[in-house]
Amino acid sequence: MTIVTDRRRAPAVDNLPLDPHPIADSIDATPRTEPYIVFKHRAWRSVGNQTLVRVTKDRTLRVKVIDACGMTCTFCHNEGTPVSGDNHARAAGEFGAVGRSGRVSLYLATNGARFAAAPVFPDAAFRSALARLRDALGFGEVHLTGGEPTLHPKLAAIVAVAREERYEVGVTSNGENGAGVLPACAKAGLGRVNFSIFGTTPEELAQVQNVRFRAASLAARKIEALERSIQVATDEGVGVSANVVVPDHSHIERVHRLLDRYSPQMSLRILSSLADGDKSLDAIDELLGDLGAVPREVHVIAGSSGFRISYTLPGGRVIKVKHIRPPAPARDLRELPLQQHDRLP
Is residue 222 within 8 Å of residue 179, measured between CB atoms? Predict the structure, then answer.
């Protein structure tokens, strides 16, 4: 196995030992052993000793620009904040995870969020925050999220400010309003859009919406809007990728349809569902087997909760699977076995 690090961004892991097998049983994690947290995850079973492990440090600033969204997905984490429209009159500690809108914030009950998100505007305060964070922490990319960012009336201006402050800019979108705003965003310097695809048929999309909004006709309009947005982004020269959550076995065919429908120019990233646990991981294992996927690289991002495994399909297409790393107890480096401690920088 080869572990490759970006020396400018992650020098602390340059001299880590390369054989994962004894480490996996003896080290849970420390702040200086980020790569080995991966070996505790069951996805590692599919990765052979010849697979490249790449370690980088997270330099992406994630900015929630708006809370509004036109979907009511039952698994939405809403960036960890309460749904603003349902909680604007409530004080911290009284926020509800589900409200009249039908939208949810899946982890609100346990994550300790004590504020409701307000929209971000392309003003002097936003510019100053970007500049100060860039200079202090070395951020080089900003990723705009929501809610649904394309519903923000000044999204293109936000992109422009970020580019002026020397950031690469990406957006995560469900595509419901992209066709109308992405041309201006592309002109302002938007580099890529990660489209979240929750269904390839109206029935699939409706099934993961709040029960009050499970109308196939509404879902059909959302899918049509998504496809227009993907086409517009492609036409404008913006990089396009798709995020697909696979909660269980019933969603495998959806991924097959996505691969058939969209060209290899659209990168596909499969996400496991935290809420569904092993059911989701079992389904992803089955999907990879069906596709004949061969692992080519593990990408560990130090400082973030996830890691990604890239797979090559028989025709040469590459897909990625993103997993959340297992939690690790806080341990002092001195607790490591001596021979491993000595080899750490």
Answer: no
For 270-316, the pLDDT digits (tens) are 998 877 889 999 999 999 999 999 999 999 888 777 889 999 999 99
Beta-strand (E) ranges in the chain? Answer: 2-5, 52-57, 60-64, 141-145, 168-173, 192-196, 239-246, 267-272, 294-302, 306-312, 318-324
| Side-chain half-sphere exposure of 180, counting CA atoms within 13 A | 10
Q: Which of 111, 114, 118, 109 is nearest to 85 (CA)?
A: 118
Distance CA 73, CA 67 (A): 14
The predicted-structure confidence for 124-147, as pLDDT tens digits, reads as follows: 999 999 999 999 999 999 999 999
User: Using CA atoms, how far apart are residues 254 and 273, in angstroms rounded to an integer?
Assistant: 15
Q: Do residues 191 and 144 lie in contact, with contact meaning Cβ atoms separated by under 8 Å?
A: no
pLDDT confidence tier of residue 265, bands split at 50, 70 and 90: confident
292 backbone φψ class: left, alpha, beta (φ>0; ψ -120 to 50): left
Residue reference for tokens 């964070």: 133
DSSP secondary structure letter of residue 237: T
Residue with token string 């936000």: 158
Q: How many CA atoms lie within 13 A of 339 on its CB side?
A: 4
